[in-house]
Design a protein that fits this description.
This is Thymidylate kinase. Pfam families: Thymidylate_kin. InterPro entries: P-loop_NTPase, Thymidylate_kin-like_dom, Thymidylate_kinase. With about 250 residues, this protein is α/β, with parallel strands linked by helices. Helix content is about 50%, strand content about 10%. The chain has one domain: Rossmann fold (3-Layer(aba) Sandwich), CATH 3.40.50. It is built from nine helices and six strands; from the N terminus they run βαβααβααβαααβαβ. Helix 2 crosses helix 3, helix 4 crosses helix 8 and helix 6 packs across helix 8. Bound molecules: adenosine-5'-diphosphate and thymidine-5'-diphosphate. Adenosine-5'-diphosphate binds next to helix 1 and helix 6.
């Protein structure tokens, strides 16, 4: 963690509800818990990020991977690190895990993607939203697809599987990651569960020896359900399989 600030990455396949949950979490932390939140997303809304977001039919493979990484490093310099230094909780809709999935879908080796992101801040918490692939396909059909990745045949099944692999990859490298099943839970409930995890982590941090600004752990009214800490799974197991075959 960087000062009092934290970096929370909201990740998951297209249509799972990342943007919706990021917005709900931001509102909850700001309005109910008076936390300073920097809500952001990748690709960013800068010219570089917009080129990547709108350019998925033009840029592919290593070119796309470098475009995304360049946008991420600029994002870190200009927005994420300054916000963390101010003590804010940065909630980022898509981050490194997305690259470990989408660039791999695009034919780039996972280790290569990881090395390209070597100097990027590790998130304090990765929130991996999952849902049964058929649910994802239906949500994308209702909302409309936004990119070449989402239009790819069977994209929901492919992304679902690759996010499970990325979760294991990150957990093996000691990146804290929780997985939440968004198949049936509504966005506000998911936001409350995440807020509970984030505020608990923040409280533990502020209770670290030598800190004068101790804050009691804040309760999260209405939070229910269970977040699975990926490293807690049995060795070798993929992310939660309770929705497999559902
Ligand atoms: N938990 C949820 N349950 C049901 N529908 C949801 C949920 N979260 C989001 N949605 C809907 O699914 C669609 C995709 O959500 P969105 O936030 O755009 O996903 P993403 O950012 O992951 O691509 C939207 O129409 C949204 O209203
Ligand atoms: C963050 C990230 C995005 N992308 C690309 C894929 C997506 O098509 C595009 C935009 O992300 P996406 O979240 O799907 O867009 P929207 O918010 O409009 O639904 O950026 C990557 O290829 N790798 C990444 O690491």
């Amino acid at each position: 963690m960087n000062g009092q600030g934290m970096l929370i990455a909201v990740e998951g396949p297209g249509g799972v509800g990342k943007s919706t949950v990021t917005a709900a979490l931001t509102t909850l932390l700001r309005d109910e818990f008076a936390v300073n939140v920097c809500a952001t997303r990748e690709p960013t809304d800068t010219p570089l990020g917009t080129m990547a977001r709108q350019g998925t039919d033009v840029y592919r493979g290593l070119a796309m991977a470098h475009l995304i990484a360049a946008d991420r490093y600029q994002h870190l310099d200009e927005q994420i690190r300054p916000a963390m230094a101010r003590g804010e909780i940065v909630v980022c809709d898509r981050y490194i895990a997305s690259s470990l999935v989408l660039q791999v879908m695009d034919g780039v080796d996972r280790e290569t993607v990881w090395r390209m992101n070597e100097a990027a801040e590790r998130p304090d918490l990765v929130v991996l939203l999952t849902a049964h692939p058929d649910v994802l396909t239906n949500r994308l059909a209702r909302r409309g697809t936004h990119s070449r990745f989402e239009r790819e045949t069977d994209s929901s099944h492919i992304e679902y599987g690759l996010f499970a692999e990325a979760a294991k990859f990150l957990a093996d490298r000691d990146v804290p990651i929780v997985e939440l099943d968004a198949t049936a839970a509504d966005p506000d409930t998911l936001a409350r569960i995440i807020a509970g995890d984030v505020l608990t982590m923040r409280s533990h941090k502020s209770h670290a020896p030598g800190r004068a600004d101790l804050q009691p752990q804040q309760p999260v009214p209405g939070a229910s359900g269970e977040a699975t800490l990926v490293p807690d799974r049995p060795a070798g197991a993929g992310p939660r399989t309770d929705r497999d075959g559902a």
